[in-house]
Structure formats: C-alpha cells, structure tokens
Design a protein that fits this description.
The chain is elongated. By secondary structure, the chain is mainly α. It has one domain. Helices cover 81% and strands 0% of the residues.
C-alpha cells in the first residue's frame, strides 16, 4: 500500500514539474523576455544617428546583455521540459515570438546603421562591445530556437524552423557589417 501511494506521489511530482516548466517558459517569454526586448529596442531607438553619448551606447550594451541573459534563461527553462509541448503551448510560445520578431529585426538593423555613430564616440571600445553583444545575442537566440524546435509540437515546426532561419539570416547580415566571423556557429 505504501509503495502505491509513493508511486502516485512521484508521478504527480513529475507531472507537476513538467507543467511548471511549461508555465515557466511561457511566463519567461511573455513577461521577462518581452520586457527585456522592449528595453533593448528602446535603447537602440534612443541612440541618434549622430551625436550620441557614451551613456546611450552603454544603455544599448546593458539592455542587450539583459536580453541575451533572459533568452538564455528561457532556453534553460525550455530544456527542463521532458516531453513535447502541446500544440496549444507551442502556438502560444510561437505567437509571443512572432509578436517580437519585427521589432527585434528592426532593432538589429538599427544597430547596423548606427555603426558609424558608435565609431565616432570618444571611447573606441563601443564597436567592440556591440560585436560582443551581437555574438552573445545570436548564440542565445539560436540556442533558444533550437530548444523550442526540439520541444514544439509537430504542427508548428515549419513556422519555428522558418523563424530560426530568419533569425540566423538577420544576424549573419548584421554581424557582417561588424566583421564578425560566425562560421561554424
């Protein structure tokens, strides 16, 4: 009798962990990732095409770091899930990502067109910081997409793969502007 009760409790604990992880991933994306995304896009948009300050450039750097860390944490949460996501959960996550995608791509393009302004700042290390941020953000974003694809329901895999391809393409273009070699990554 004790063994049966212990088995039921263990089964519920495993089920609860999986459900908590899915809820954690969705919360991470809908709240934390969205908030970090807004901070990142706001920081990029606030930096002028010329005459920007070192403080404004560092705001982009800090926002990019925070955004990358949130993406990495969301990836860790996704990796904690032990089974495929349901179609509804997969679609919910995909919807959040699709809502952010245009603004994210626009912010990356904003970083590209602001390269001359970053280079004109008195501190010569801003382009190096931006390179580092782009590399870290690309790694985080691609890792998240890989994890999502590994866990997503088969019904959304096509859209998820297309999104990952778009993420990789935009980073390839932007990183080329900053002369960042991404071969093998």
């Amino acid at each position: 009798m004790h063994f049966k009760s212990l088995f039921v409790l263990a089964s519920l604990a495993v089920f609860s962990f999986a459900e908590t992880s899915i809820a954690k991933v969705q919360d991470s994306i809908s709240n934390k990732m969205t908030s970090a995304f807004i901070d990142f896009t706001t920081a990029v948009q606030a930096f002028p095409m010329s005459g920007g300050t070192l403080k404004q450039a560092k705001s982009i750097h800090y926002a990019a770091n925070t955004f990358s860390n949130v993406i990495a944490n969301s990836t860790n949460n996704m990796n904690d899930i032990t089974s495929r996501l349901s179609r509804a959960d997969s679609q919910t996550i995909l919807d959040y990502l699709e809502a952010m995608e245009p603004g994210f791509f626009q912010s990356l393009k904003g970083i590209a067109i602001r390269k001359p302004a970053f280079e004109a700042l008195p501190s010569g290390d801003v382009p190096a910081l931006i390179k580092q941020d782009l590399t870290t953000m690309r790694t985080s974003a691609v890792s998240f997409m890989d994890s999502f694809i590994a866990h997503a329901s088969t019904e959304v895999l096509g859209e998820a793969r297309t999104m990952k391809s778009g993420v990789k393409s935009i980073f390839t273009a932007i990183m080329a502007i900053y002369n960042i070699n991404i071969l093998g990554v």
